[in-house]
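Usage example:
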Amino acid sequence: MRTGDPEQGDSREEAGVVRSASRAPRTWGTSAGFGHCPEWLGRVVDGFSGPWHVPDAAGAPREPYDCVVVAVRTLSDLRRVVPMHRLLPSAGRVRVALAEVPPWATEPIPVSGQSDAWRHLADLRITRTTSGWHLDASFAEPVAAGEVIASVARGLLGTGRHMSQPVIGLAGDHADEWRPGDANATPVELTLPPPERRDAPGCDLLLRLGRDHDHDHDHDRDHDRDHDRDHDRDHDRGRDGGRSRDRAEVRAGGAHIDLGAGRDHADPGPLPPVDEAVINPIGFKRHPTGPLAVLGPDFAVTGGSDVLVRLGPRGELTDVEVARLRDVRGVVIPSCDGAGPAPIRMASGVTAGTAVATVARIVAGLAAAGVPVIARPDAARDAALGPELAEAVAAVGEEDLASDLRREETAIRLRRIALRAHGAVARWRAIAASAGLPVPPEPMVSVLLCTRRPEMIPFAIQQMERQRGVRLELIVGLHGLPAGSVPATSLPVTVVEAPGGLSFGALLNRMAAAASGTFLAKVDDDDWYGPDHLADLLLAQLYSGADLVGSAPEFVYLEPIDVTIRRRVGTERFAPFVAGGTVLITRAMFDAVGGFRPIPRTVDGQLLEAVQAAGGRIYRTHGFNYVLRRRNAREHTWRPPVQSFLTSYEEQWRGLVFNALMEDAPAYGRQK
Amino acid sequence: MRQAAAAYVPRPRIPLNDYGVLGDPPEPGAWTPTLPVSVVVSTLRGHARSLPLTLAGLAAQSYPDHLLEVIVVDAGDGPPVVLPDRVPGRTRVIRPEPGTSTTPDAGAAVADGHVVHLLDADLVLLPEHIEAHMRWHHLADHLVVLSRPRHAPGMDGTRMDGRLDRRLDTTSDLRAAGPKAFNAMVGVPASVPAALLRASGGWQPSGEYTELGYRLALAGAVFVAERHARSVHTGTPAEPDRSYLAEHVPTLRRLRKQRRTHLVPYVEAVVPVGDAAAEDVRATVDGLLASDLHDIVVIVAGPPTTGVRAIREAYAGRSRVVFAEDAPGMASRSVPFRFHCPPGWVPSPQTLRSIVAFADRKALGVLSLALDEREGVVSARLERTAAMNRARLLARPGEDLDDLVHETFGTLWEAGETWGIAPASAPRPETSRPGQRRVAARRSRNPLRRGLVGLLTRT
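Running the assembly step on the lines above writes:
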C-alpha cells in the first residue's frame, strides 16, 4: 500500500486488533463535486461525516468494508465516479447520496445488468431528499460498490449511450472527467503500466494527465489528498512549462495497435470534453424570465446583483448549474485580458493560461447546454474552443438574444457546434482517429419516405439532399405508383413498390426491411425540413439517450388561410408525442416493438405507444428544422380543423415564413 | 405644366403612422418644389382685422409664387372682405351665396392646387411656413401635415397648445401614435392633399378640426407633425364642441359613456344573407344586437327574396338594423370598423367590444376569425376602415388589398371560438363578465385543442 492516508491506515490497524469485540462499523467514503462547497458535504449523508477518500488508481482496498458511502453533488459528478468504479472497495452496504438533481432527471433506480452484486441484494431503499436522492442498498455478502454505482448511473441516464470503445486507460488527477460515465474505462496509476485484462491489453489508449506546481492548491475534491507524494513526478514532467495546467496526453496503450514512427502520443486538446449526457439542452426554456447574466470573478454567474450559480474553480459546469441558468437570457463572458468591463479575477498563483482554458471550458459547456453566450473574440480562448465554435460565439450579439425566437435560433446554432466539437463522443472519435486507431463510420440513418403523390417526390428528395452532417440512405416507398417516379439523386436510394391496397404501416415495414441504417427516420413528402434536421435529431438522440426522438410540430403553415404559426409546444424534454414526420427511432427499438402497426392511418402514433409500452423513452427536441404543412381540408383528411391551430398559437406570420434555421427551404406548393 | 408637375407623387407604404420610413425631408431652400398649393384662409370667426397680417405673411413666403394661390373665404357675417395692398400674386376672395356652406370647404372646392393648406385669418406665418409643410407633400400623397402655432403674448392659448405638445412628445412627433394620430389635429395650420380631402368627405358645416382629422384618418391619411413650420396665433382658440364630437367621432370612446346609439356608429356589422336559412340570419343579427356595444349598426345584405322579406318584417322596428340589396362595397366614410359575420354564427355580447379592443391594442388592420372548415374556411372578419382605405389608396392594379393592409397596419388570424363566436345550433354558454371573455376563452378546455393531439401523431 503506497498511500500515506493516515485515517485509512489507522482504521485498518484498529480493525485488526479488536476484531472480536463489538467494533464500530468500518465505513469507507468517497465524494465528488463538493470541492467548492465542502460544508455541504458534511450534511449530505446522515450519520457519516468523513473521512472522505479518493479512489486510488493503485487498486481498491482488498478487505471488504461494512459500508461504502459515495456522495456526489450532481449527475455530472456521478458520471465522473463511474470510470473509477473499479477502485471502490467492496462492502455489505452501499449508500449513494446524490445531493442535487436537475428537474428533468429520472429517479436513481439501479439497472442491474449482468452484475453479480445485485444477486446478493437484501434490501434497497431509495429516498427523496430535499434536493436530491439517497440510495441505501444492503447485501447478503460484500459486493463491489463500484458495480452498484455503475448500475445507478445506468438507471439515471439510460443504457443506450454509445461511448465504450476504444478502451481508455485513465491516469492522473481529473482524468475521470475525460471519460464521464464510461464503466469500461481502466483506471491506471500514473507511474505503472496499465493493468492487463483477461487475454487482452488493459487499454487501447492511455490518457495521462500531468500536474504542474501551480496547481497544487486545487481544492476541488481532493482537499484531503496528500500532495507531497506526487511532487517528484511533477518535477520529472516539468517540460510542460506551466502553460497548461493539466497537460493531457494520449498514449497508445495496447501492443496490438500499430502506430507509425513518431506517432506514439497524440494531443487530446486543451479542454476536457463536455459530457453530453448531462450538459445538454434538455430543459431549455423558450421564454426565459431572467436578464442577461455575467460571468464574474471567481466564476460566479451573476444576474443583476444576485449570484445565480458559482462554478467550480476549474470551470466545472454541471447539470445543476445549467438548470439554474435556464431562466437567464444569456451569459456575458468578460474578456480574460482585462480589456472588458470586469475582467475575470483569478485566485493568486493561477496563471493567465489557466484562466483562459477555464473560461474556454465554461463557454463550451454553456454553449453545449443551450445557454447562449456573448463573448468578444479572444485569441487564446478561441484557440481552445476551436475555430468553428469561436466563430459562432463571436457572431452572437446582445440583439440576437432580445427576442425569444432569435435567442432560440442562436442557442440551437451554438449547441449544435459545441456538442459536435466538444461532446465526449465526438471528441473521443477525433482523439482515437488522431492516435491512429481505426474509427467506425458515423451511424447511418435510413430515411423512410412513403408517398402516393408523384408530384411531391422531387420536392421531398430535394429536401433530403439538403441534409448535412449525417450519413443517410433513402428508402422511397411508392404507394400505388409506377417505379419510374423517382428522379435521379446523389443519395443512395432503394425503391420499394407496393400496390395502393397495401396498408401504410405494412408498406413502411417493408421499407424498413430494406433499410440498413442504425436509425430509421420517417419523413413526410409535403412538409419542409431544414438542412440540419436529421443531424439535430441524431444529436438529440445522443444527448437524451432516448429510443425514439422527434421534433415538436412548432411551426405550421396553414395553407387554407396562408398563414404560418408557431404553436405553443414544450420542447427539449421527454414527452409522449412528437411530430409524425420527424420520428427517428433506433433500429434496435424498432425491431423490439416489431415495427409499424399494419394499419392505414395513425401509424406514427401507434409506434409511439408501442415504444412506451416496451419501456422505451421518447424525446422531443426543438421544432426549428421542421415546418408542417396543413393542407386544405379537401385534399387531405384532417382531423383538427384549421381554427383549432389558432386557439393556441404563440406567433403568427402572413404567408409561408421560415425561421432562420430552415435556410430558405424550397417553397414548393405555396398557395398563390 | 401644373398638370405635369402634379402627375406623380410617390406612394410609399407607411406602417401605421410611422412616417419615419420617409426619411428626413429636405431642408428649406435646398430643394425644388413642383406641387401647387392652395391656401384657404377662413375668416369664419370674424378675423377681418387680422386678415392683412395673414396675407402679408403669405406674401413673404419662400414657396415659389407660381405654385401658390390664396383663397380667402369670406364668412359673410360682416362687411365684405377687402383685400389689402400686400397680398400674394394670386389671391381671390370667395363669398358663398347665402344658405350655402361658408366654411373652408367652400374654398377647398374651388381650389385647384394639389394641396389645400388650411389657415385661419388670425394666423401670421413665418416665411418658410408653407415650404416646410410642402416638402412633406412631395414625399407622399397621403400625408396630413400639422404644425403648431405659437400664441401671441397676452392671448389665452395655453390649453390647446399643451394638448398638441403633449401628444407630440409622447409619440415622437406622432410617429408612434398609431391609428389615434388624428387626435393631434386640433386646429390649423394643417395641409391636406386635395384628393384626400375630397375622399374624406371634405369639411362639414359647423365642423371641428378633430372630426375632419378623424375622417382623413379613415380615408387613409398619415399625420405628420412639422415643428419647423412656424406661425403665430393672434386670436383666441376655440373650445371643441364635445357633444358634436361625441356624435361624429366614435373612436373618442370617452365621449360615449352613455349606453345609447349615436349618429355615427362605432361598428358596422354586415351579415350577408346568401342562401342561408332565415333563422340562421336572425340568430346572427340577434347576437349582434345583443352586443354590449350600443353604437353599432347591423346591415343585412341580400336581394329581397321571400326569406329576406321575412327578416325585414322581424326587424321593422329596429332602427339599428339596415337592409341592403348587395353587400356594401367600401365602408362608409365615417364608420371606423366593419365586422363581417356569416349567418348561422352568433357572437357573444362581449365579442364586438373585445375584438375591437384587441384590434386597437395590436393596431390591426384586419382581424380574421376562423369559424369552421368545410370546403373552404368559414370566417368572420373585422376591418379597420382606415386600413382598408389606406390599402385602396396604395394598391397597384392586381395587388391584394390584404397584403397591403398587412404591410401598413397588420393582419391576424384567430379562432372565432376564442372570441366567443359560436354556431347558432350550439347551446348558448353562460356569459362571463365583460373584459374577462378572452381570458376565459383561452383558459377553457376546448375540444379543438384536444383534437390537436391527433396532429402530433398524424399519418
